[in-house]
Structures are given as structure tokens and as C-alpha cells.
Design goal:
By secondary structure, the protein is an alpha+beta fold. Among the domains are: about 140 residues, PX Domain, CATH 3.30.1520; about 80 residues, SH3 Domains (SH3 type barrels). It is about 25% helix and about 20% strand. The chain is built from twelve helices and 14 strands. The strands form three sheets. Strands 8-7-6-5-9 form a five-stranded antiparallel sheet, with no helix packed on it. The radius of gyration is 26 Å and the shape is elongated.
Length: about 400
């Protein structure tokens, strides 16, 4: 009962490697019964030899005795020379093969031959490289590629990020960091966990511990949407920090700001605060097994909890206080209630409470009050914000 088996195999794409000579390897994300996720790399010649051995082990299911009994999927033989085009075009077939393989009867899908082939090897964690030769080129398979498997992206230059503080991993699927480490980001998940690689290591890393090499990555973060998107809480959470919210499963809330570290600013009635995005699900979306498993993990750390004076996150990043979120959220609600029938130009104007409307003509224009620091940080250009920082 305790034997390991594979729950799912997902083809991520392929790599073009240059050492010891130019060749291609496919990247697979293998999900195991203990909820761990591993990335493994296999050449197609290896996969085909694995397939041939599997057919020999199960001659009935492979159709060798009667073709009508075949349930093991077909796999084309390798070409005399496998170039990039054949490697790319084969992805759809290979993705379908893996999906069918995992869903075969347990005597096949959970046999040692399948389990051992997809186990992590030493060269998966420590690929043979040469510092004098250029880094591998990564070609990721688009998420919607099942319908159009030949629609593959071009070579992807992975973004390099720097660790701003030490991080100790809490599970085998994560990767430990030391302040100053340079990592390449393979996948950015909106739940705040990013899949990274660094030399011989690969694993999930909290986005809060990473910063780009050239400056704060504000451009990747969405602007606040005070209209809000309706989400449903899928897992309860008790606030730890003062600016977080305590909610229970089933609560309906509105997301007003999606941040890269996986902690979103949400609104419950007229109260705003931070909440882990991995515990939320958009209203109307169907729950999946992957999402359910993800919620079993702990929430990633917040950027505000990482103390590092050298981090550039605190040098130029746009800061929005909870008071600003609350003020704008409350005004948005008031505008939505009171000015629904007004024109768009009037609806977009935010009127301060302390500014009484006065339509009487004045002899001279009044000098407007100096805007607050929060208002400048929230509304002005980067050059203006830098002057008050």
C-alpha cells in the first residue's frame, strides 16, 4: 500500500542542450502519490526504448496477440536524425502518450518499469554542463497547446533574479536560497511560488525572496482594481499580521489588487486586507484536484516580513498603504451607489469628504491643498514619487 506511483505526467516543453554535443531533452513535471512534484529530463530515444520494453512486458495490452486488445498507446520510432523541428512536432503525441499511460490499468501504470523510468535521476538534479558553452535554450509548451500542439514558443531567455535573503526549504519540492544567489525563473505562479533553477538545483521558491537584477518589477504587478473581482474562499485563514483578514471557507470576497508575492488585497464588505491567493478561487470556476492539493501547502511568506535593508524592493517599489486601499475602496462603493446614473466623466472623479461643493463664482482661484504622501505614491508618475522617497 505504501508503494510509490505516479498520479500525473505533464510535458512542459523541451531543452536544446550543447554539451557534450548538441541534443534535445524533453521536460516532464511528474506528480507522485505523496503530492511531491519533480521535473525530469529524458531524450526521445530513451522514451522509445522504455516504450518497447513496456510492450514486451504486456503483450496482450500492446496488441501483439490481438490488435483489438491494444490499450497501450502508439509511439513513433525516432528518426535517423532528430532535429529541432521533429522534436517540436512530436510534443503533441508525447503529451497524449503520457496522459494515456498514467490512466492505464494499475498493473501497467503503477508497475516498477514505469515508476523507475520517471524517478528523478542524478543528472536531472545535476545536469552535465560546461561553463565555456552557452546555456541550454528552453522551449516551453503553451498551456493551451493540447488543441494545437505545433504552436510552440520560440527560444525563451529565462529571467534571472537575485535572492534578497536566506530561505530554508520546508519540503522536498522547494529549493533553499542564500542571500545573493542568482536563479533563473522557469514558471511564475500567481500563488506566490515560482519554479526556479540554479546550476544543479531546481525547485519552488517564494517570489517574495526574489528581486530582478535591473530594478523592482512593478511592471509585472497589476494596478489596483477597486471595482473588484468576485472570488470565493476555499480555505480558512486566521490573520497573523494586522493588515491581514481572517476568513472562513465559503466566504465571498472581492479581489482589488493582485500582487506577485501571492498575497492579494481583498475586500470583505467595506473592510480590506491581505489574504493568500492560493486559498481563493474565482466565482464560477470549477474546482480541480490540482487546486485542492495546492491548498494543502502553507501560504508563501510576504515581502513585508523579509527584513533586508539591501533589497531594492524598498528603494523604488510603489508602496500602497492599507489606508489608501480602504479610502479608495470606500469611495468606489459610494460612487457606485450614488452616481450610477451619472456620466462617466463624473463617475471617475473622486471627491474628498472635506471638500464641500461650491458652485459660486470666485474672484480668484483658490490654491489647492498639497496632496498627501499616500496620494502622490498612488497617483503620480515615477519621477514625482522619487522626489518624496
Amino acid at each position: 500500500m505504501g508503494d510509490a506511483f505516479i498520479r500525473h505526467i505533464e510535458l512542459l516543453g523541451y531543452e536544446k542542450r550543447f554539451f557534450p554535443s548538441q541534443h534535445y531533452v524533453y521536460m516532464f513535471l511528474v506528480k507522485w502519490n505523496d503530492l511531491s512534484e519533480k521535473v525530469v529530463y529524458r531524450r526521445f530515444t530513451e522514451i522509445y526504448e522504455f516504450h518497447k520494453a513496456l510492450k514486451e512486458m504486456f503483450p496482450i495490452e500492446s496488441g501483439d496477440i490481438n490488435t483489438e486488445n491494444r490499450i497501450i498507446p502508439h509511439l513513433p520510432a525516432p528518426k535517423w536524425f532528430d532535429g529541432q523541428r521533429s522534436t517540436q512536432n512530436r510534443q503533441g503525441t508525447l503529451a497524449e502518450y503520457c496522459y494515456t499511460l498514467v490512466n492505464l490499468p494499475h498493473k501497467i501504470s503503477r508497475c516498477l518499469h514505469v515508476v523507475n523510468f520517471f524517478k528523478v535521476r542524478h543528472d536531472d538534479m545535476n545536469p552535465v554542463t560546461d561553463s565555456q558553452i552557452k546555456k541550454p535554450e528552453v522551449f516551453l509548451l503553451p498551456k493551451d497547446s493540447k488543441k494545437n500542439p505545433t504552436d510552440i514558443t520560440g527560444p525563451i531567455v529565462l529571467q534571472t533574479y537575485r535572492a534578497i535573503a536566506d530561505y530554508e526549504k520546508s519540503s522536498k519540492s522547494e529549493m533553499a536560497l542564500t542571500a545573493g544567489d542568482m536563479v533563473d525563473v522557469v514558471e511564475k505562479s500567481e500563488n506566490g511560488w515560482w519554479f526556479c533553477q540554479m546550476k544543479n538545483k531546481r525547485g519552488w521558491v517564494p517570489a517574495a525572496y526574489l528581486e530582478p537584477m535591473d530594478g523592482p518589477d512593478e511592471s509585472e504587478e497589476q494596478e489596483p482594481n477597486y471595482a473588484g473581482e468576485v472570488y470565493v474562499v476555499q480555505k480558512s485563514y486566521t490573520a497573523v499580521e494586522e493588515d491581514e483578514l481572517t476568513l472562513k471557507e465559503g466566504d465571498t470576497i472581492e479581489v482589488i489588487h493582485k500582487l506577485l508575492d501571492g498575497w492579494w488585497v481583498i475586500r470583505k464588505d467595506e473592510t480590506t486586507g491581505y489574504y493568500p491567493s492560493m486559498y481563493l478561487q474565482k466565482a464560477g470556476e470549477v474546482n480541480t484536484a490540482v487546486r485542492s492539493e495546492l491548498r494543502n501547502r502553507s501560504a508563501p511568506p510576504r515581502r513585508s516580513t523579509i527584513r533586508n535593508a539591501k533589497s531594492i524592493h524598498k528603494q523604488g517599489r510603489k508602496q500602497i498603504s492599507q489606508e489608501t486601499y480602504r479610502r479608495n475602496s470606500k469611495k468606489y462603493i459610494q460612487n457606485r451607489r450614488n452616481t450610477r446614473g451619472n456620466s462617466l466623466s463624473k463617475a471617475n472623479v473622486i471627491i474628498e469628504k472635506n471638500e464641500p461643493e461650491d458652485n459660486k463664482p470666485k474672484a480668484q482661484p483658490a490654491v489647492p491643498p498639497r496632496p498627501s504622501k499616500d496620494l502622490i505614491l498612488n497617483r503620480c508618475t515615477e519621477s514625482t514619487r522619487k522626489k518624496i522617497l
